[in-house]
Design a protein that fits this description.
heterodimer, A: 298 residues, alpha+beta, Alpha-Beta Plaits, four-stranded mixed β-sheet, two-stranded antiparallel sheet, 10 strands, B: 1031 residues, alpha/beta, globular, iron-sulfur (chain A), metal ion binding (chain A)
C-alpha cells in the first residue's frame, strides 16, 4: 500500500533525529506520497430491489467507489452526521471498537448524550464525536517525532511504529479525539487459566487478533517502539483500511438511524457534498480554525 | 505491523450469515471470521432488517461480501458473548448443597446416565436421598393408550364421562397417572417440566418434539409473561377468528403482534416503547422512523414516564407509570364523545360489507351482546340463522351475520341498547362506550397524571390523519395487573380509526415462510409420537377451572389461579411446583432461563429451588452459570447463538415476507461428545437426543422421522426446516457450483462434529440440497422490499383481511378462578389488584412509583459479559429520579441508595451467609416524571461470572465488573393471596414489573470522580451544546 510506503519513507527521514534525541516540532503536515494510491476499483455490480429507492448506504458506497478511481491527492474524505437522525444508540461506538479491536479506554467515536431544558420541557441531544480529520490539525505540529501527519486524502494518520507515547497530541486535540492505549484488555478482571470446565482461554482469543488500521496488520505487542500500538496515542482513522477496499467506515454502515454519511468532499456529485451545502451544516469549534472535515446537520 | 493491505473481513470465504440473540429482535447478521475466529459482526445486507431496501436476493454472496448492513451495539458486541471466559465447556455436577457454588466436571455420558436413571446421585457428598430420573417420569409410553386417555380426559372435562367411568375403563393403567382420582391432571410424564427462558423458533419446535411427542409431558414453557404477554394475548383475542371444525364453532386465537406502517404513517404513537431501544427492534425500525421524521412526513409521540432515546426527538408525554390504561380509556371516551371514530369501518359487520366499503378487515363492533351473560347473541337463538352466525341490528331490525360471508354485506347499528327476542341486547360498541363512560375525562386525566388538554390533544392528533396514524406498544403500558385491559384499549384506539391494513396504519407485517411444512411435514414426521394431556403444572391453557375435577373438590377460590386465556406463565412455574398444586413435579429442566433474577420478586424462588422436596431433580443448560442455574444439580453447557441453529421471522415492522436463519458460524466452545456414535458439541439438542435415545422415546434414532429418515443429529431436524423454506413456492434458485464451494470454504474452520457436508446433504436429500445452499449462503429468505405495498397504494400487500374484535367474547364470558367474578369483554378501568381481589395500597412513606426500562446496549440477562458495549458505555445502572424528587428527598447525583418496598427490606440471601443488596447510585435528571423512579434492566448480577465458584476443588475467581449496578425486581410487590409470587394479570398471566411504590434509603454519599476527566468531558459537552444552540 502506498500509505504504508509513505510512513516508511517518513520514518526513515525522522528516525535519525529521534535517536539523536532531537525534537521535531512542527513537522510537515503533508506526507510525501507517490501519486496514485490504490488500484482503481470498478464500481460493484450491485443489483438492488428498486432503482428508484435504495438504502443510502449503497448510494454512499457507489460515491466511495467513484472516488477510489481518482488519484489519492484528489480525494478529500469527509463525514456528515445528522443529529436529527442520531438516536444515541452507540452502535457506532461499539462497532468501531470491534472493528478496530480497541482495548478499554481507547474510544474513537463516543456519543455525547445531553439533557437540555427542564421538566417537562426537556429534550435529549446526541452527538457522536469521531476524529475531525482537521485540515489544520493541532495534533500534528506538536508531535515531537513526526509520528502523525495529514495524508494527501486528508486523513490524519498515526504511525504506531514511530509514536513514542508522549501524549502531546492528546492534549493538543481540542476535540478529545485521541486516547491512549495503556495496554489493557477487556477480560483483564476475569479469571485466567487453561480451558477446562470453563473456557478461560478460548474465552479471550478474540483479543489477540490483529487489527487492520491504515491498511496494515497490527499485532498488539509488536513494533519498533515495543508493544505498539500499546503505549501509543490512538484515534479514529475514518476506517481508511475499509475505505480503500471499497467499503464504508464502520460507524457509517452500522448506524441504525442512517445518521452518518461518508464520502469525498471533492466530488460535487457525492452525497456528503450535497449535504454540507445545506444551511443546517455546522462544525464543532469552528472558531478554532482547525477546519474539521466532520459536519453536523442540526 | 505487517501484511500490507490485508483485510480478510471482506473476503466471502470468511463470512457466514447468521442471526443475533442479544435480544429477541434477532436481527440477521453477517458474521466475519479471521483465522477461524469470529472477529466482527455486522448486519446482513440480504435482509430487510439491516438494509432498507436490502440487496436483491439474486445478488451473489461474493458480491455482497463488501456490503455491510447496520446492527445495534448489542449485536456489535456479540463476539464477547461467543468468547466469554466464563462459558461452560463441560457438564458440571454440584459438589455441595444446591447453591453452594461448588461443582465438579463430569463426562456427558455420566451426566446423561445419572439424570435418566436417577438414584442416590449425591451420595458422594453425604446426601442419601434418592433422586428421580427421566425413567421415573417416562411412564406412559404407549402412543395408542395415550391418545385414548387424552380423549377420555377431554370427555371428563366436557362432562361426557365420569371419573369413575374413566377409572373402570383404564383400570389396568391407573398407575401411569399422577392421581387416578383426578385423571385430568394427566400421566406421570407431566412431572417433567421443561422451562425455557430464551428460546426461539426452530429450537422451540425441537424442544416441543422432545417434551410432547417424545416424553409425553404437557409441561413445556417459555417465558413470555416476564416479557409482554398481555400485549400478545390482547392481540390474539382482538384478532381471534370464529372457526368451524366438525360442525362445532369456537374462537381461534389470532396474531400476537401488529405494528404501525412507519413508512406510510403521518402520525405514530409509541406507547411505553420506542423505535430506538428494546421493542422489535431498533435496526429494523429506526431507519424507517428517522428518515420519515427528518423528511417531515412523520410526526410521532412517545408515551413514557422517562424521556427515552426514542422520545428525544418526538412529542414526549410523561404519563404516570401505570396511568396508561386511564390515558387510553380517556382517549377512547373523547373520540367516542366527539365522534372522531371511523363509523363506516366499525359498522361493517362481515367481509362483504368491508369489501363493499373499500376495506380489507372488519369488526364485531355492531354484533349484539347479551350483557347478562357476556355472550354474543347467536342467530340461532332468535331463529334468524345458524349456530355459527351472530346478530346485528340493521336500521333497528335484527339481522343474522356470518362474519365471513363475502356475498351479502351486513352493516349494523353502532349504538344499540335494546331487547331482541326477549333477550337484553347491546352492541359491542355500546358495551365499550358504557364501560368507558363510567368515568369522566377529569378522572382519567388524574389517574394518568396528565392534563386533560394533553389527552384531548393526543386524541385529536391521532384522529386527524385518516387511516395514516397508528399506535405501537409493547411492554410499558401492560406490566400491571390490568395489563390485558390496557393492551386491549390501545388496540381499540387503532380499531376506532379503522386503520387496519392501510398504508400508514396498523399492519400485520410480511409474515414468514413456513418452515414446518412443505417438503417435510415436520408436525407429522414423528414416528410413534405420544399425545400429551392433562392440566399444565401452572394451570395455563388448561381450560376453565370450573370444568376440572379439582373444582369439584375445592370450588372457589382456587388454591392457585388458573389461566385459561394465556400461556407461558413463567413466574408461576416454580412456585406451583413448590406448593404441589395442582400436583408435585419430579424433574425441572431450566433451559437458558433465570427466573430468580428476571422475575419480579423472583428471589423468593431461591428457597424453593434449594429444596429437593419441592424440586426433586433440577437440571439446567446455559452458556454461563447464572443466577438460577447456580442452584441446579447439573448444569450442561449450551451453544451460543453463533454456534448453532434456529430460525425466526421478523416482527411486523418488516412488511415483506421473510425467514431468518441461524446456523453454526463459530466453532463450538463446549466439549464435543458422542451421542450414539455421532460426534457433536454439548447443547440442548444433543442432551435431548441422548436422553430420548437412552429412554427409547419415540421419534429418535433410526426411522425417527419416517421410514429411512433417521433422527441422529441436530441438523437432521433443522436442515429440513431450511429445505421447507427454500422449496416453498416458488423455490429459490439452485446454488451454482461456485456457491456450493463457497459454503464449504466458509466453514473450513468448523469441526466435522458440526459441519460434515455429506451429513448435511443427507438430512435433506440431494434433490433440494442446492436450494438449501442458496438459503444458507444468504442467511434466510427475504421477499423484495418493493413488495411491501399493494399496487393500489392504499393498502399494504400483506394484509390481515379478517375479523377484528372490539368485544372479546371468551374473556367476556370468563370467570376469575379465585374471586369467582366475571371478567370483561371490553377494557375496563382497574387498579392494581391481588388474586383475592384486594386493591393493593402502599403506605405513604413509599412515595416513588418504580418502573423499569431497557437500554439499547443491554438485553435481558446476558449482556453484562459484553465488556465493550454495556460495560464500557455504562458500567453500572442508576436509580433515576427527577430533580424535584431529589431536592425533596435531599439526594444528590451519585448518592448510593437502597430500594425498599413494603414487601422487601433491601437485601436478600442468595446463599448461606451471602446477601445481595438492591442498591445503586442516584442519577438526577429532568427527563423523568416526578414521583417515579426508573431502574434499567441488565445489571445487578450475583452470578453469571461475577462471583467466585469452585470447580474440581479449585476456585475460579469471578469478575466483579460483571456484577455492578442493581436489579430492581426483588422490590416488586408480592401477591397478597399467594404470598410467594409477584402480582399478576389474571387474564394474560403477565407479571407486574410496574405498580410498586418504593422508598429510597440513602446508604452512602456521592464520591467525587476524577476532576481532570470531568473537566475534559465538560468542555466537550459544552462544545456539543454550542452546535445545537446554533440550530
Amino acid at each position: 500500500m502506498a500509505n504504508h510506503e509513505d510512513r516508511r519513507d517518513f520514518l526513515e527521514k525522522v528516525a535519525s533525529a529521534v535517536f539523536a534525541g532531537m525534537v521535531l516540532g512542527g513537522a510537515k503536515v503533508e506526507a510525501q506520497a507517490p501519486a496514485g494510491g490504490v488500484e482503481p476499483t470498478p464500481p460493484p455490480p450491485f443489483k438492488i430491489s428498486s432503482e428508484a429507492q435504495e438504502d443510502v448506504l449503497l448510494r454512499m458506497q457507489r460515491d466511495l467507489q467513484r472516488a477510489l478511481t481518482k488519484p489519492i491527492e484528489e480525494r478529500r474524505w469527509g463525514m456528515v452526521i445528522d443529529t436529527r437522525k442520531c438516536v444515541g444508540c452507540h452502535a457506532c461506538t461499539v462497532g468501531c471498537v470491534m472493528e478496530n479491536k480497541l482495548p478499554p479506554g481507547v474510544v474513537y467515536r463516543p456519543v455525547i448524550d445531553m439533557e437540555v431544558g427542564e421538566y417537562p420541557n426537556v429534550d435529549r441531544k446526541f452527538l457522536p464525536r469521531p476524529c475531525m480529520q482537521c485540515d489544520k490539525p493541532p495534533c500534528v505540529p506538536v508531535c515531537p517525532v513526526g509520528a502523525t501527519w495529514k495524508r494527501k486524502d486528508g486523513i490524519v494518520e498515526i504511525d504506531y511504529d514511530a509514536c513514542i507515547g508522549c501524549r502531546y497530541c492528546i492534549t493538543a486535540c481540542p476535540y478529545s479525539a485521541r486516547t491512549f492505549d495503556f495496554g489493557e484488555n477487556w477480560t483483564d478482571a476475569a479469571a485466567a487459566g487453561k480451558d477446562g470446565p470453563l473456557a478461560l482461554e478460548t474465552g479471550r482469543i478474540y483479543e489477540e487478533l490483529p487489527n487492520f488500521e491504515y491498511g496494515e496488520t497490527w499485532e498488539r505487542g509488536e513494533g519498533i517502539i515495543p508493544q505498539s500500538p500499546v503505549g501509543n496515542a490512538r484515534k479514529c482513522t475514518f476506517c481508511i483500511h475499509r475505505v480503500e477496499k471499497g467499503v464504508l467506515p464502520m460507524c457509517v454502515t452500522t448506524c441504525i438511524g442512517r445518521a452518518t454519511f461518508f464520502g469525498d468532499f471533492n466530488d460535487p456529485e457525492s452525497l456528503v457534498s450535497e449535504l454540507i451545502a445545506r444551511n443546517n451544516a455546522v462544525r464543532l469549534k469552528e472558531e478554532l480554525g482547525t477546519e474539521p472535515k466532520v459536519y453536523y446537520l442540526v | 505491523a505487517q501484511g500490507e493491505g490485508a483485510y480478510p473481513l471482506v473476503e466471502p470465504e470468511n463470512i457466514i450469515y447468521g442471526l443475533c440473540l442479544q435480544c429477541h429482535t434477532e436481527c440477521t447478521l453477517k458474521i466475519k471470521l479471521q483465522d477461524g475466529v469470529v472477529s466482527k459482526i455486522d448486519g446482513n445486507p440480504f435482509s430487510p432488517g439491516n438494509m432498507q431496501p436490502q440487496l436483491d436476493y439474486a445478488t451473489s454472496p461474493q458480491q455482497a461480501a463488501k456490503v455491510d448492513g447496520s446492527i445495534c451495539p448489542k449485536g456489535q458486541a456479540g463476539v464477547q458473548t461467543q468468547y466469554d471466559p466464563y462459558r461452560i465447556r463441560k457438564v458440571l455436577k454440584r459438589a455441595g448443597p444446591r447453591g453452594s457454588g461448588k461443582w465438579k466436571a463430569i463426562s456427558f455420558d455420566q451426566a446423561i446416565d445419572e439424570i435418566v436413571n436417577g438414584g442416590k446421585l449425591f451420595a458422594d457428598i453425604g446426601d442419601d436421598r434418592v433422586y428421580p430420573g427421566f425413567k421415573d417420569v417416562f411412564k406412559l409410553k404407549d402412543a395408542r393408550l395415550a391418545k385414548e386417555m387424552a380423549a377420555d380426559v377431554a370427555a371428563i372435562r366436557a362432562g361426557r364421562m365420569t371419573v369413575q367411568e374413566f377409572k373402570q375403563k383404564h383400570s389396568a393403567h391407573l398407575d401411569l397417572l399422577i392421581d387416578p382420582d383426578h385423571p385430568d391432571l394427566g400421566p406421570k410424564n407431566n412431572q417433567f417440566v421443561f422451562m425455557a427462558g430464551r428460546i426461539e423458533h426452530g429450537r422451540k419446535e425441537y424442544a416441543k418434539r422432545f417434551t410432547f411427542g417424545g416424553l409425553g409431558s404437557i409441561n413445556w414453557y417459555a417465558h413470555t409473561t416476564i416479557c409482554e404477554q398481555a400485549h400478545h394475548i390482547a392481540y390474539k383475542y382482538a384478532t381471534a377468528q370464529w372457526v368451524e371444525k366438525l360442525g362445532k364453532y369456537s374462537w381461534k386465537k389470532g396474531k400476537d403482534h401488529m405494528k404501525p406502517d412507519f413508512e406510510g404513517a403521518e402520525f405514530v404513537i409509541f406507547w411505553g416503547t420506542g423505535f430506538a431501544e428494546a421493542n422489535f427492534g431498533p435496526p429494523p425500525m429506526t431507519p424507517q422512523v428517522t428518515q420519515a421524521a427528518t423528511d417531515g412526513k412523520l410526526k410521532y409521540a412517545v408515551i413514557d414516564p422517562r424521556l427515552s432515546k426514542s422520545a428525544a426527538h418526538g412529542w414526549w408525554i410523561p404519563v404516570k407509570p401505570g396511568g396508561d390504561l386511564a390515558l387510553a380509556l380517556g382517549m377512547i371516551r373523547w373520540i367516542i364523545e366527539n365522534r372522531r371514530y371511523d363509523a363506516a369501518f366499525l359498522r361493517n359487520a362481515n367481509k362483504a360489507a368491508a369489501n363493499a366499503g373499500g376495506e380489507k378487515s372488519w369488526s364485531n363492533a355492531t354484533w349484539l351482546v347479551n350483557p347478562e351473560t357476556g355472550r354474543f347473541i347467536r342467530a340461532s337463538e332468535l331463529g334468524l340463522g345458524g349456530e355459527g352466525e351472530f346478530v346485528v341490528l340493521a336500521s333497528g331490525r335484527p339481522v343474522a351475520v356470518d362474519p365471513y360471508d363475502s356475498e351479502q354485506p351486513v352493516t349494523g347499528d353502532l349504538e344499540v341498547d335494546t331487547e331482541v327476542g326477549g333477550l337484553p341486547a347491546k352492541s359491542a360498541f355500546q358495551v365499550l362506550k358504557e364501560e368507558v363512560f363510567k368515568h369522566d375525562l377529569d378522572f382519567y386525566a388524574r389517574e394518568a397524571g396528565l392534563e386533560k388538554k394533553t389527552i384531548v390533544d393526543l386524541a385529536r392528533e391521532f384522529t386527524s390523519h385518516g387511516k395514516r396514524a397508528a399506535i405501537d406498544f409493547y411492554r410499558g403500558p401492560i406490566k400491571f395487573t390490568y395489563g390485558y385491559y390496557a393492551a386491549q384499549a390501545i388496540i381499540h384506539l387503532n380499531l376506532l380509526i379503522g386503520n387496519i391494513d392501510h398504508k400508514g396504519g396498523l399492519v400485520t407485517g410480511g409474515g414468514k415462510y413456513n418452515a414446518m411444512g412443505g417438503v417435510f411435514d415436520l408436525k407429522k414426521m414423528h414416528t410413534g409420537a405420544l399425545t400429551p394431556f392433562g392440566v399444565k403444572s401452572n394451570r395455563e391453557a388448561s381450560g376453565p377451572y370450573e370444568t376440572s375435577t379439582l373444582f369439584k373438590r375445592d370450588g372457589y377460590p382456587a388454591k392457585r389461579p388458573w389461566f385459561p386465556f394465556t400461556d407461558d406463565v413463567y413466574q408461576e412455574i416454580i412456585p406451583s411446583a413448590a406448593s404441589g398444586y395442582p400436583y408435585p413435579i419430579k424433574i425441572l429442566w431450566l433451559h437458558k432461563g433465570t427466573p430468580v433474577l428476571a422475575t419480579p420478586a423472583g428471589h423468593l424462588q431461591i428457597d424453593m429451588l434449594k429444596d429437593p422436596d419441592k424440586v426433586p431433580l433440577y437440571i439446567a443448560d446455559d452458556i454461563v452459570i447464572g443466577e438460577t442455574s447456580m442452584y441446579a444439580d447439573y448444569v450442561f453447557p449450551d451453544l451460543t447463538y453463533l454456534e448453532r441453529w434456529a430460525f425466526e421471522g421478523f416482527s411486523p415492522a418488516i412488511k415483506v415476507k421473510n425467514w431468518k436463519l441461524r446456523q453454526p458460524a463459530a466453532a463450538p466452545v463446549p466439549e464435543i461428545v458422542e451421542v450414539d456414535g455421532e460426534a457433536m458439541p454439548i447443547s440442548m439438542e444433543s442432551m435431548m437426543l441422548a436422553i430420548a435415545k437412552k429412554l427409547r422415546a419415540p421419534g429418535y434414532g433410526k426411522d425417527g422421522f419416517a421410514t429411512s429418515w433417521d433422527f441422529n443429529r441436530p441438523e437432521d431436524y433443522y436442515l429440513k426446516m431450511v429445505a421447507n423454506v427454500a422449496m416453498q413456492d416458488p423455490p429459490v434458485p439452485a446454488a451454482p457450483d461456485a456457491e456450493v464451494e463457497l459454503l464449504r470454504k466458509a466453514r473450513r474452520h468448523l469441526p466435522k462434529a458440526v459441519f460434515d457436508e455429506g451429513k448435511w446433504r443427507k438430512a435433506v436429500g440431494g434433490g433440494v440440497w442446492r436450494q438449501v445452499v442458496t438459503v444458507l449462503n444468504r442467511g434466510g429468505r427475504f421477499e423484495a422490499w418493493d413488495k411491501a405495498y399493494a399496487p393500489d397504494g392504499e393498502f399494504v400487500a400483506h394484509t390481515w383481511s379478517k375479523l377484528m374484535n372490539l368485544y372479546a367474547e371468551p374473556i367476556g364470558t370468563g370467570v376469575h378462578s379465585v374471586t369467582a367474578k366475571r371478567l370483561s369483554g371490553v377494557p375496563r378501568f382497574e387498579r392494581m389488584t391481588g388474586f383475592d381481589g384486594t386493591v393493593i395500597e402502599f403506605p405513604s412513606e413509599y412515595d416513588l412509583k418504580l418502573f423499569t426500562y431497557k437500554e439499547i446496549y443491554g438485553g435481558q440477562s446476558r449482556t453484562s459479559s459484553n465488556y465493550a458495549a454495556q460495560q464500557a458505555i455504562q458500567p453500572e445502572n442508576f436509580v433515576h429520579i427527577s430533580a424535584k424528587d431529589a431536592e425533596r428527598l435531599g439526594l444528590r447525583d451519585g448518592d448510593v441508595v437502597q430500594v425498599r418496598s413494603p414487601d422487601f427490606e433491601g437485601t436478600f440471601e442468595v446463599a448461606p451467609g451471602r446477601s445481595e443488596r438492591v442498591e445503586g447510585k442516584v442519577r438526577v435528571s429532568q427527563g423523568i416524571r416526578p414521583g417515579s423512579v426508573a431502574i434499567s434492566w441488565h445489571y445487578g448480577h450475583w452470578a453469571y461470572g461475577s462471583s467466585d465458584v469452585e470447580i474440581d476443588g479449585t476456585t475460579v475467581a469471578g469478575d466483579p465488573t460483571r456484577g455492578r449496578g442493581l436489579v430492581p425486581n426483588p422490590a416488586m410487590a408480592v401477591d397478597p393471596y399467594l404470598k410467594d409470587v409477584c402480582l399478576t394479570d389474571p387474564i394474560a398471566g403477565d407479571s407486574a414489573y410496574g405498580g410498586t411504590y418504593v422508598k429510597l434509603v440513602k446508604v452512602a454519599g456521592a464520591v467525587a470522580e476524577g476532576a481532570k476527566q470531568n473537566a475534559r468531558a465538560a468542555a466537550m459537552e459544552e462544545a456539543a451544546r454550542a452546535v445545537f444552540r446554533n440550530s
